[in-house]
């Protein structure tokens, strides 16, 4: 039986055990910074504590990006184009009531209520997050393996891909309005089925020990740590299994810049900037971060996921 091993972070990313803050201490620090519930701005829905077991990357693992930066430096174009827009403009978004429909090439299609998802056995997964814009964070997500959810609906043998769809609510998401939207809505994403079934792929329902803030994709989002951040679709309402490669929002918008796979690859530059290095957000200096660091292939998860792409030309299939 093969034992799945999670990657060991580099020594520079490890927090000494004596300095590791408990979740309670972290939340208290957030509250001291003026955040209601430790995370959310005052006008957003109140955060709820989540019971989660430490995952394989918790404890003596990666050093998380400061909470304030994780929740106030975001790309979520449904709320606007600036990094501060999601936190400032998501207060009218209502993540309840909420359901996620799982359908398509499955034996048992099912609709999941958000309370059922929150009531699952949850894990804390501390993952690197690399944005295609060449900045990065380390985020302590709360969630569960996507493969566990997919197993419950019993994918058919003909299913090859998993398509994801986000919510459309222009009355609550001001970035979805306007005459010239930056993207076609809803936001859509996709994975190959084997990528979706990989143990590292999760559906996140929280971060830093509480439910997701609106600006981070409440109430449920995808996290695939070896891919660029735009693959992590937020505020999911539908998951569909299919035999055809699904359309994805940024690939439709600019296919020469954003591929379907979007694996973190320092050897393949974006047409307008280098992907060889990244700027860690919050590492020693608020939003501006520390000095740049080299980007790792597959965002440091190559030992676990490189085999998924054996024989592929990752310059062509970017």
What's the arrangement of secondary structure elements?
Layout: H1 23-32, E1 52-54, H2 67-72, H3 85-89, E2 99-104, E3 110-113, H4 114-118, E4 122-130, E5 135-145, H5 146-153, E6 161-166, E7 188-192, H6 193-196, E8 202-207, E9 210-211, E10 221-223, E11 236-242, H7 249-253, E12 277-280, E13 293-294, H8 302-305
Parallel strand pairs: 1-4, 2-11, 5-12
Antiparallel strand pairs: 2-3, 4-5, 5-8, 6-7, 6-11, 8-9, 8-10, 12-13
Cofactor: Mo-molybdopterin
Domain Oxidoreductase molybdopterin-binding: 94-250
Protein name: Protein-methionine-sulfoxide reductase catalytic subunit MsrP
Which structural class fits the helix and strand makeup? alpha+beta
How many helices does DSSP assign? 8
Q: How many domains?
A: 1
Largest sheet composition: 8 strands, mixed
Q: Which CATH class?
A: Alpha Beta
| CATH fold-type name | Sulfite Oxidase, Chain A, domain 2
Number of strands: 13
The first-to-last residue Cα distance is: 32 Å
- Mean pLDDT across the residues is 86
Q: What's the alpha carbon Rg, rounded to whole Å?
A: 18 Å
Shape: globular
Tell me the series of helices and strands, N- to C-terminal.
HEHHEEHEEHEEHEEEEHEEH
CATH architecture: Alpha-Beta Complex
Range of strand content: 15-25%
Proportion of helical residues: 10-25%
